[in-house]
Design a protein that fits this description.
Layout (H helix, E strand, L loop, with lengths): L1 E10 L2 E11 L4 E5 L6 H8 L7 E6 L2 E2 L4 H6 L1 E4 L11 H11 L8 H11 L15 H13 L5 E5 L7 H16 L3 E5 L3 H7 L2 E6 L2 E6 L1 H8 L6 H8 L14
Parallel strand pairs: 3-8, 3-9, 6-7, 7-8
Antiparallel strand pairs: 1-2, 1-4, 4-5, 9-10
Helix pairs in contact: 8-9
Length: 252
């Protein structure tokens, strides 16, 4: 469903992403992890068509993101790490705007789907309020609703639970499982390793722009040459950061 072939992005002499190749199966929740600056967000921006790669190709359900952008984006939902929302619109108006971008008409059932999403995320009662009055968590739930409004086949997610309270996190993770069970493919990037470990049957780890590990937890253990059961320890070993610097910041 998702295929990256030799994906590369270079800024001057700096390689942000280098020769990245992987495949994500239909209905899979794939975890994409890495330290800060490893190339995760750059990869995602290329996948969703916001940044052109230096070389390589990206396919979503067989559709080339840059050669057939409209076809690829028609089946794509995207939840960015820092969503932009039009604050002078109400929540309901924003979803109507998103429906218009996807050329959805009443016959597509977007209004009923909008209602269900707002109800699921406890936003129905404030759908007529301006977004500028929404809390960070409410905005995050609204952008997730917008990404799902057109029933995409592929959902690309960059830090989905930032700013959400524990109940919001549970709602989102439960929803992701249901979407995958229904056949949607999810590409999930997060710094919260517990969520990745809980949700993702397979995980890819990127470090300094290159894929350094790929597979299930048992396969990651083999690649890390470790028996550790925790993803955090495997992650640190695979990114060569097992012994973070220790420094005292107490009073002199």
């Amino acid at each position: 469903m998702i295929e990256l072939e030799g994906l590369t992005k270079k800024f001057g002499s700096f390689w942000a992403v280098r020769d990245l190749s992987l495949k994500v199966r239909p209905g899979e929740i794939f975890g994409f992890l890495g330290p800060n600056g490893a190339g995760k967000t750059t990869t995602i921006r290329m996948m969703v068509g916001l940044m052109k790669p230096t070389s390589g190709r990206i396919f979503l359900d067989g559709k080339d993101v840059f050669r057939k952008p409209e076809e690829a984006k028609a089946i794509l939902g995207y939840i960015p790490d820092r969503p932009y929302l039009y604050e002078k619109l109400t929540g309901g108006e924003f979803l109507e705007f998103i429906a218009g971008l996807h050329r959805l008409g009443k016959e597509d059932g977007w209004e009923e789907r909008s209602q269900r999403l707002l109800e699921y995320f406890d936003l129905l009662s404030c759908r007529k309020e301006l977004i500028e009055s929404y809390s960070h968590g409410m905005r995050q739930r609204l952008i997730i609703s917008a990404a799902l409004l057109h029933s995409p086949k592929v959902l690309v997610v960059d830090e989905p639970v930032v700013g959400l309270d524990p109940r919001g996190v549970r709602l989102v993770t439960s929803l992701f499982r249901d979407l995958a069970n229904g056949g949607m493919t999810l590409f999930l990037s997060t710094h919260i390793l517990g969520i990745a470990e809980d949700l993702c049957p397979r995980i890819g780890i990127i470090h300094e722009g290159q894929l350094v590990a790929l597979g299930s937890m048992s396969e990651l253990r083999k690649q890390a040459q470790s028996r550790d059961e925790r993803l955090e320890s495997l992650f640190l070993k695979l990114t060569q950061d097992e012994n973070p610097r220790r420094q005292s910041f107490g009073a002199p």
